[in-house]
Amino acid sequence: MAQPESDGRGPAGDAWSAEAYARNARFVSDLGAPVLDLLDPRPGERILDLGCGDGALTEKIVAAGAEVRGVDASPDMIAMARARGLDVEVVDGHALAFDREFDAVFSNAAIHWMTRPAEVIAGVARALKPGGRFVAEFGGMGNVAAIRTAIIAVLAGYGVETDLRQIWYFPTEAEHAARLEAAGFTVEEIALIPRPTPVASGMEAWLATLAAPALRLLSEGDRDEAAGRMARLLAPALQDEGGNWRADYVRIRFRAILAGA
Ligand code: BEZ
C-alpha cells in the first residue's frame, strides 16, 4: 500500500483534528519548557515558530516580548492558533519562502514530521538573518522505538509492509548536525535526550492521534482493532501495574547559528 506523503506536519491533507490533539497530546506543548529556555527569546526579536500547531508555545514566545510568526501545515491547527490571536499561516515546512526576516527560528515536536530535512533546513537558513539562531526539539534516533516496532508488526499482520521512515524523521545527533552544517550553520549544542513520557489518555488514544498516518495505511474498518492489537503488544513494555502508560520518547534538542553575522 502507498505511504501517505508528509506535508510538513502530519500526513497529506489535514489529518489533524486540533480538538483531538488538545485532548490526547497536550503534554507535547506542556513539555516544551527546556527548548523554550534554550531559545531564550528577547523583547523585540522577530521569531518564526516552525510547526506551531495550535499556538500553545507560540503564545509563550509572544509573552516574552518577541514578535512571532507561526506556520503549520495543518489548517485545523492554524485555525486554533489564530483563535488565540496569533499571527499564523498555513505553510508546508518544506517550502518556507521567508527571506532573511527572522532573528531566530524555533520549533517543538514538529520537525520529525518533515521527511525531507534538507529542504526544511535550507528554508530555515533563508528565513534567518545572518547570525540568526535555529533552536528546536523533536523526536531523535530511538524515538518511540517500541511503539514503531509494534506498529510495523501489526501492520504486517494485515499485509501492509512499512518501515515508517516515510512518515517520521528521527535522526542521530551526527546526522542532523551534518545537515545543519551543510546549510551554513555552526552547531553550538545538540543532544539526544531519553524522555519516557506519561500518556494519560492511554496508548490507543495516542496511536489514534499521533500514529494516524500509519493507521491510515489500513482500511478504516480495521484501524481500531489494529490499535488495540498494538496496545496489547506494548503493554508489557510501556504500561505499569496500575495501568498507566509511558511512551518511549527520545528527543533531539539543538541550537545552531547561521554564518555571516
Ligand atoms: C513525538 O513527538 O515524538 C512523536 C509524535 C508523533 C508520532 C511519533 C512521535
CATH topology type of the domain at 13-141 and 169-197 and 249-258 = Rossmann fold
One letter per element, helices H and strands E, the order comes to HHHEHEHEEHEHHEEHHHEE
Low-pLDDT windows of residues? 1-13
* Tally of contiguous helical segments: 11
Number of strand elements: 9
Alpha carbon gap, first and last residue: 48 Å
CATH architecture call of the domain at 13-141 and 169-197 and 249-258 = 3-Layer(aba) Sandwich
Q: Label the overall shape.
A: globular
In this entry the ligands are: benzoic acid
Overall pLDDT: 92
Please identify which CATH superfamily of the domain at 13-141 and 169-197 and 249-258 we are dealing with: Vaccinia Virus protein VP39
For the record, the CATH class of the domain at 13-141 and 169-197 and 249-258 is Alpha Beta
What is the topology, as strand order, of the major beta sheet? 3-2-1-4-5-9-6
Beta-strand content: 15-25%
Query: What proportion of the residues is helical, as a percent range?
Result: 25-40%
User: What structural class results from the helix and strand content?
Assistant: alpha/beta
Biggest beta sheet summary: 7 strands, mixed
Radius of gyration: 18 Å
